[in-house]
């Protein structure tokens, strides 16, 4: 299976900050990558698909980039509602795998 | 509005069985890729099993031979039959809709907790 590794595991930031989370794949996955946001006790929410396409209804302060093995999720001007856990997921093969998650906490 | 509602979770002893159900509204299960994704306590997400629109199925290696995914088109429901349960199967199980066979997953249920413990 393709391994997905996120960094950092935890990120402390303040409202208004710009942050970036990195996701690395153990082999090339082209741009078959999605990003999810998850809050405690809730189901994940799809934010980004195909590495950089914004899901309907997701604010434009969220953006994704990358291809091959390295990808980033960027949030500009953090809002209080953005503090959550973010996970990447590849869907390059019929065995999709997720990253371990990055917890974004308030500084 | 699309809704996925899971049920059937609970406490079960190691070696036991459980059947999870997912009631779907707002989309037709027979025309979509429906996947069960689980999350062990404090851990990341894991895709467990998918049933294709054509009826084919696939499973993660960790559950192959123990879990069976199925659907009832007349009731618009998806099921996950889990046998020979192990402690490591303890997780919240989510029913999801995949845009393609392996994702991404754009609709999720609220999840149902399965605890395997003696």
Structure report:
- The complex is a heterodimer of chains A (107) and B (118).
- Chain A is built from no helices and eleven strands.
- With 107 residues, chain A is mainly beta.
- In chain A, strands 2, 4, 5, 6, 9, 10 and 11 form a seven-stranded mixed β-sheet that branches. Chain A has a four-stranded antiparallel β-sheet with strand order 1-3-8-7, with no helix packed on it.
- Chain B is an all-beta fold and 118 residues long.
- Chain B is built from no helices and eleven strands.
- Chain B has strands at residues 3-7, 10-12, 18-25, 33-39, 45-51, 57-59, 67-72, 77-82, 91-98, 105-108, 112-116.
- In chain B, strands 2, 4, 5, 6, 9, 10 and 11 form a seven-stranded mixed β-sheet that branches.
- In chain B, a hairpin with a 5-residue loop joins strand 5 and strand 6.
- Chain B is globular and about 40 Å long.
- The interface between A and B is medium-sized, with 22 and 21 residues.
Briefly say what this structure is.
Chain A has strands spanning 4-7, 10-13, 19-25, 33-38, 45-49, 53-54, 62-67, 70-75, 85-90, 97-98, 102-106.
Fold blueprint:
The complex is a heterodimer of chains A (107) and B (118).
Chain A: E1 4-7, E2 10-13, E3 19-25, E4 33-38, E5 45-49, E6 53-54, E7 62-67, E8 70-75, E9 85-90, E10 97-98, E11 102-106
Parallel strand pairs in A: 2-11
Antiparallel strand pairs in A: 1-3, 3-8, 4-5, 4-9, 5-6, 7-8, 9-10, 9-11
Chain B: E1 3-7, E2 10-12, E3 18-25, E4 33-39, E5 45-51, E6 57-59, E7 67-72, E8 77-82, E9 91-98, E10 105-108, E11 112-116
Parallel strand pairs in B: 2-11
Antiparallel strand pairs in B: 1-3, 3-8, 4-5, 4-9, 5-6, 7-8, 9-10, 9-11
Poorly predicted ranges of chain A: none
Taking pLDDT < 50 over at least 5 consecutive residues as the criterion, the unreliable ranges of chain B are none
Oligomer: heterodimer
Main beta sheet strand tally, sense and closure of chain A: 7 strands, mixed
User: Which percent range describes the beta-strand content of chain B?
Assistant: over 45%
User: What is the ordering of alpha helices and beta strands of chain A?
Assistant: EEEEEEEEEEE
Q: Mean of the pLDDT scores of chain A?
A: 97
Silhouette of chain B = globular
| Main sheet characteristics of chain B | 7 strands, mixed
Structural class of chain B: mainly beta
Helix share bin of chain A = under 10%
Q: How large is the count of helical segments of chain A?
A: 0
Rg of chain A, rounded, reads 13 Å
**How many individual helices of chain B?**
0
- How much of the sequence lies in strands of chain A comes to over 45%
Ends distance of chain B = 40 Å
Radius of gyration of chain B, in Å, reads 13 Å
């Amino acid at each position: 299976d393709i391994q997905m590794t996120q960094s950092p595991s935890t990120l402390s930031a303040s409202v208004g900050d710009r942050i970036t989370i990195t996701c690395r794949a153990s082999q090339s996955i082209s741009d078959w990558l999605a990003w999810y946001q998850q809050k405690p006790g809730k189901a994940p929410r799809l934010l980004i698909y195909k590495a950089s396409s914004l899901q309907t209804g997701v604010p434009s302060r969220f953006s994704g980039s990358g291809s091959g093995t390295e990808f980033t999720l960027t949030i500009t001007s953090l809002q209080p509602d953005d503090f959550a856990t973010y996970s990447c997921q590849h869907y390059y093969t019929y065995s999709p795998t997720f990253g371990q998650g990055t917890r974004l906490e308030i500084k | 509005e699309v809704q996925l509602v899971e049920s059937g979770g609970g406490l079960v002893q190691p070696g036991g069985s459980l059947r999870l159900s997912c009631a779907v509204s707002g989309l037709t299960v027979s025309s979509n890729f429906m996947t069960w994704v689980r999350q062990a306590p404090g851990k990341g997400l894991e895709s467990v099993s998918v049933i294709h629109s054509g009826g084919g199925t696939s499973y993660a290696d960790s559950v192959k031979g123990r879990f069976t995914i199925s659907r009832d088109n007349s009731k618009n429901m998806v099921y996950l039959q889990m046998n020979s349960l192990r402690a490591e199967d303890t997780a919240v199980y989510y029913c999801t809709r995949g845009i393609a066979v392996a994702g991404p997953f754009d609709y999720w249920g609220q999840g149902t907790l399965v605890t395997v413990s003696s």
